[in-house]
Protein 1
Amino acid sequence: MLVPRLNNLRAMDPEAIVIRIKTPSGDMDSSVDYPSLLNFNDLLVAIRDVMPEATVTAFEYEDEVGDRITVRSDEELKAMLSYYFNTMHEQRMNGLLPDPLQIFPRAGKTPGIRNIHGLKVNTRPNPGNDCTHTVPDSIANNSLKKSSAELKRILTNGQINAQDIHYQEQLGHGNGGTVYKAYHVIGNRVLAVKVIPLDITVELQKQIMSELEILYKCDSPYIITFFSAFFVENRISICTEFMDGGSLDVFKRIPEHVLGRIAVAVVKGLTYLWSLKILHRDVKPSNMLVNTRGQVKLCDFGVSTQLVNSIAKTYVGTNAYMAPERISGEQYGIHADVWSVGISFMELALGMFPYPQIQKNQGSLMPLQLLQCIVDEDPPDLPVGQFSEKFVHFITQCMRRHPKERPAPNNLMEHSFIIQYNDGNAEVVSMWVCCCLEERRAQQAQGRV
Ligand code: ATP
Ligand code: MG
């Protein structure tokens, strides 16, 4: 039994948590007084107590976007708890009672409803429930908190209302918009909300909203999840998944073995967009986001022509990451995105923009004349001695002056640099992001002293 066993231990955890075991026949809430002492086997034994007829060897939980993550070991259990503690913290900061940690056993057979082993049940207020038995689905669904899957449906149906969003800190400001970290009260999740002031007609607003609809269909681990967009007065707010590592432009120089894994994700993300006939059009380090789980995702791709045009009317300038053919106003296609991958990764590897005569102090938009050197000069190379041959070749290929000479999507995935780092090792990126964030925090703390 989960609780009595753990209650015997003397460790002092800051607080107990409630784990809700989701079974096909109903929910079982168990209080865990010392979560830091919980191990995978204890939890598995507790699950098997609840579902004795099923063969349970693993369970799952849902992340912030409702994707299921499997837990099969102590290490994965730790990751789940750490994710849950963060969520609890966010909920508290927003004056809410934390939801129980919901887990979904992976079972072979369907069990019956059971509580024969007397697990301690439901220690959190749950109206209409006298806290002694398994909660049937119908009652659970009536509880104040909705299930993640349901929330995902609500969110993806675009039902985020302005009044349900609590703005927290400002994450950054770009050409046209300001991005905030925010909390969606109904969905109990952290969002990134980009707010763009736009003085446009209602007709244009409707057109933008319909152009953004394709974002609901984007479903890739390498593309930021889009939740909703809405207009309030003359501002559009675009709500997406929050990435706790932020964008790559603030990371300075990134070591090649980390950059290799990031490049794999970026190439996969672009390949996915291209397969939907979407050009990104704004590939650059500030539109590549990372999180402490080691995920890398692309954001701010130009699905809405009207939105791009409306922003461009206010913010005049040319993007320094644009391919030469775009700077000189020629037609462009997928190969222009490939150039932007090359120049972005060169900057991330060197820790400086590859054209020294172009100073990007204030964002990436520049007067056209300043970018003429990108059109006129031979593209720069990465210095061979400092980087691997594969990496140097990858950058050189992406930054070929003539678009057709750059690798096509399939060739990009098959490039030896991408193949070398396509090992699914998210740990490398995760550790690097965590170290950088830690360093940043320490520097900020020093600055304060
Ligand atoms: P541009 O407007 O040309 O795209 P930009 O990318 O620098 O320039 P924004 O897109 O407005 O500007 O983003 C501002 C900053 O907000 C980013 O640099 C990034 O650090 C942060 N940011 C954006 N989206 C997210 C997100 N989903 N999660 C976390 N941080 C984000
Ligand atoms: Mg951006």
Note: Confidence is low (pLDDT under 50) at residues 1-12, 109-158.
Protein 2
Amino acid sequence: MSEHPLQATPPTTSYEADPSQVDRVLLLYSGGLDTSVMLKWIQDSYEAEVVCLTVNLGQPGEDYSVIEEKAKALGAVECHVVDARERFAEDFLVPAIRANAVYGNGYPLFTALGRPLIAQLAVEYARKSNCDTIAHGCTGKGNDQVRIEATVATLAPELRTIAPVRSWQMGRDEEIAYAREHGIPVKGGTEAAPYSIDDNLWGRSSEGRWIEDLGQAPEDDVFQLVTRPELAPDEAQVLTVGFEAGRPVSLDGERLGLVDLLERAAEIGCRHGVGIVDHIEDRIVGLKVRDIYEVPAAAIILTAHEELERLVGTIHQNQFKPALDQKWGYLVYGGLWWEPLRTDLDAYMAAVNARVSGEIGIRLYKGSVRVVTRSSPNAVYDASLASFAESGGLFSQQASPGFIEIWSLQSRMAHRLREEQGE
Ligand code: ARG
């Protein structure tokens, strides 16, 4: 054991590791301060070997070779960097698009969708590398610990987990001191703490600093991805998004692979300043927290998808599905990706989305996203029926009064009754 005051702690649940039984740990390693300190700390406090896993879900601007070198330099016995962008897009983002998945007031769940895949990969690599324990850098106040540990406990009951940030009681200053003491490179350690960032193909979140002050309007330096709307081009751009069975397949008529398409949509959205969300969020663990989200790809793709879905759906389908969408989003937000209800809902989403094919034109202009054109072979729309100018056709206007009489029957009776009773 290290002479450092920070000790490994005994478990409180069945899936947490007992320090005496930890020999080889799979660490979910980002290369940041927390997980770098952790990489050393686990070797010292648990006298265990550490295997590092870094997952590429399309974090913009990340250099994975630097992360790998750092892990090796800090004593990792193995380092794995996995490009999981395709799997993330296919298995997680396509279902999310079909479910119009957002939580609260516009959070498209990019972090919540990424965590079950990261944890699933952790299980796969832990088994391959003969690890007994999975370690992650989540705090005890957030949703991510729930998502990761629920996944590990579901998929691999034989594995144990440890979450050092929950137990080591180091603040940022102590972590920096620990890092210095153990030869862990720290960039800009003396400055104010940076924003806490999480990002992938589907968006980016910032937390901490002034964001925690609800009275404080966003400071410009938080927007590292999306152009500030006031600096976006003066010319609007109309982007046409094509879908097949609820899955985005083209931009402006050009067919693209899913990952390319999402990256391209994000780039265009960034240029026009779209997808900024200033969000107060009800976390699973009871806290309300503010997040600043930059979600340029989701702002475009979800807006287009929802529009097309409503065009091909009947009034009854369109009234029903949002309730299921919301349930889907909440299960995923809550870390229950592996809950069978989510798969059941996916079957319904797939059934509805079988007809969601066509094109939606989206106008992007200084932060706004607006649907301007729609077309689909499956649209439940007949221009001549709907026409204001055309009087006849299949729609019999003479039949309307009879419809109105019967449609309003109960409401009229109830209204009269209340009048007679002097209400
Ligand atoms: N509030 C969002 C969520 O719970 C984003 C969390 C970002 N995670 C992070 N480790 N910074 O899904």
Note: Residues 111-112, 143-144, 196, 198, 205, 207, 281, 291 surround arginine (CB under 6 Å).
